[in-house]
Amino acid sequence: MTTKAQDGELAIGNVTLRRLPHLSDHFPNFQTHPNPLDNNPFFRPASEFYVNPSDIVLRRIVHDINSPTSPHDAYIRSGPRRRVYFQGSHVRAAIVTCGGLCPGMNTVLRELVVGLWDLYGVREIFGIRAGYRGFYSGEAMALNPTLVHNWHKRGGTVLETSRGGFDLHKIVYIIGGDGTMRGMLDICEEITRRKLNIAVVGIPKTVDNDVSIIDRSFGFETAVEVAQHAISAAYTEAQSAVNGIGLVKLMGRSSGHIALHATLSSRDVDCCLIPEMDFYLEGEGGLFEFLERRLKDPGHAVVVVAEGAGQDIIPKTEEVYVQEKDESGNPVFLDVGAWLRSELKKWWKREHGNELFTVKYIDPTYMIRAVPANAVDSMYCTFLAHSAVHGGMAGYTGFVCGLINGVYAYIPVEDVARAKNVVNTRDHIWAWVRSITNQPDFVKP
User: Fold this and answer.
1) Taking residues 88-104, what's their average pLDDT?
2) Residue 328's pLDDT band (boundaries 50, 70, 90)?
3) What predicted TM-score, i.e. pTM, was given to this entire model?
4) Which long-range contacts (CB under 8 A, 24 or more apart) does 433-440 make?
5) What digits encode the pLDDT tens for the residues 105-133?
6) 401 close to 199: Cβ distance less than 8 angstroms
7) The pLDDT value given to residue 180
8) Which of 73, 208, 270, 377 is catalytic?
9) Omega within 30 of 0 (cis) for the link into 412
């Protein structure tokens, strides 16, 4: 099928709906029930309230009408269904938080509890402490709306979190968690193998915004906002010193989205270094040559570097350290910020002797991770949590919730578990960064 544009109309063909697992695949005779929201006085559902089962969300909405169409992936739209699979009085729900901290985690927890309790009448809701290992190494916390009422005002996660601890044969169920997508995929596959009547729902949590397909992950906008405070401090320090450089390291192991967006928002950054872009220090077109010019005019500079940048040029003296991984299986990176600060000082002393020079290094990582969500992220967390509740109660499983082109959708977990959202250094946004900073492209002559 091809794409045609005739008489001002555009027809898009070759749409592939990404199949979403449903518990009825394995329990075809299970009875469905009217949605209890029918009787909720705060909703009084109109005909447009419930999501049509045939509603889909296209992954890509930009299309060249003069080119043959390529396959268009589509996902099921999220929201309340007219018929539900579970009755609230028969549901036991477990919620777990895994991995590092992220702004908005407590908001998601709160809204999952409130959504399950108030919308669907679920009364057995449990919080699993300390990540995946909490399923088999501790007692669950009984949750209710009164207990979680003010959780959204706090940073971190009240349930506590950890990396690793995943043991497939000791975990029985998880609903509404946000942990590693790989672990969730394994859980879904094991539940399917055992033919258990359990729905598994995920809310992707990564402050780096490196989850594929979705527009953004929760906490990202808060992280960018807080990162600007560090950049502003670095700018003040650099501007107030003779030959001053402010160096800020931001989160971003495999993607530089925080560094990129903070740079664009700040306008005070002279050079933005991200994992998706190689750079070098010495010689023509290198970082040192660029900073030399900036220190002559206007006399100071601010450099923002994502934590995953430059890993290939940092000297690796300990082979065992290079191969080290954390409990989540992620490689342990060398500290690019501390290394770059040291190299800057060596360069200046070598080239300029005892001339005045200052490098102020700021690493706001834990300050950014631990703050509560801002207003935009808090609202986003609410919609994500309620989307997860609606989908789980409708019997969908093995999916995550997220925005796709501004519309909430359900995405099979395998789609997000095996891909990364990285910065495209060939598009107009990265070009915009370079136009603001005037930094080199770091292509060696």
Assistant:
1) 90
2) low
3) 0.89
4) 433/260, 433/263, 433/264, 433/272, 436/263, 436/264, 436/267, 436/269, 437/263, 437/269, 437/270, 437/271, 437/272, 438/270, 439/270, 439/271, 439/272, 439/290, 440/285, 440/286, 440/287, 440/289, 440/290
5) 999 999 999 999 999 999 999 999 988 88
6) no
7) 59
8) 208
9) no
Q: Can you read off the two tokens belonging to residue 376?
A: 């935009």
Whether pLDDT at 171 is above 80: no
Active site residue 208: yes
How much is the mean pLDDT over the chain? 88
- Reported as a single tens digit per residue, the pLDDT across 296-309 is 999 999 999 999 99
pLDDT higher than threshold 70 for residue 173: no
Which residue has tokens 């919609």? 383
Residue 69 has pLDDT above 80, yes or no: no
Q: How many CB atoms lie within 10 A of CB 287?
A: 23
Average pLDDT over residues 430-434: 95
CB contact at 8 A, 23 and 191: no
**Token reading at 136:** 């088999």
CA 177 centroid distance within chain: 14
Type of residue at 207 = V
Provide the residue type at 327 as one letter.
E
Q: How far apart are CA 30 and CA 22, in angstroms?
A: 12
* Percentage of the residues of the chain whose pLDDT score is greater than 90: 66
CA distance 314 to 256: 18
Asked if 343 contacts 284 with a C-beta cutoff of 8 angstroms, the reply is no
